[in-house]
Amino acid sequence: SSGGEGEEEEGEADDDRQGGILKNIDWGSLFVSLAIVIVAIGLGLCASFKISSHRFNRFANRMGSLSGVLLILLSALLTSLSGEGDAKLWAQPWSFYLGVSLPCLVGLVVSTGLAVAARLKKPEVVSVGVECCYQNVGICTSAVITIFR
Fold first, then answer.
1. At residue 53, does pLDDT exceed 90?
2. 25, β-bridge pairs
């Protein structure tokens, strides 16, 4: 025998490693999270189109900012309270923080640079930067929080 049994066990272990994460995803929760985000964006666009009020726009802006801050706090709280010692957010090496923050920072610089190059007005430049750097990350964060069983 050429070790067929050992190779078979190795193949099964590879399958478990490769497909294991997909088995642990709660697809229902993921799609519900995405549907909520899509509906919220749609309702926001409709409200912005239908309601032409400076007061409403200020209120919606404040609620959006509050929601963003609360999402950051919730994410920090959940990562601090969950996991073992080496899985905690604050127990990672510097390279982890660099790897996590670099795409966001590069996205902010590139998107803001492109918005300035397109000669957008200052508030529009800020909107493009925030959308590319933070809001999309927030959507992903909220999905990831609910994705695993």
1. no
2. 148
Question: With helix as H, strand as E and coil as C, how does the chain read?
Answer: CCCHHHHHHHHHHHHHHHHHHHHCECHHHHHHHHHHHHHHHHHHHHHHHHCCCHHHHHHHHHHHHHHHHHHHHHHHHHHHHCCCHHHCHHHCCHHHHHHHHHHHHHHHHHHHHHHHHCCCCHHHHHHHHHHHHHHHHHHHHHHHHHHEC
Rounded to whole angstroms, what are the CA distances from 82 to 16, 18, 26, 49? 24, 24, 18, 41
Q: Which amino acid is at 60?
A: A
The model carries a pTM of 0.52
Q: Report which of 126, 144, 55, 112 is spatially closest to residue 63, judged by C-alpha positions.
A: 55
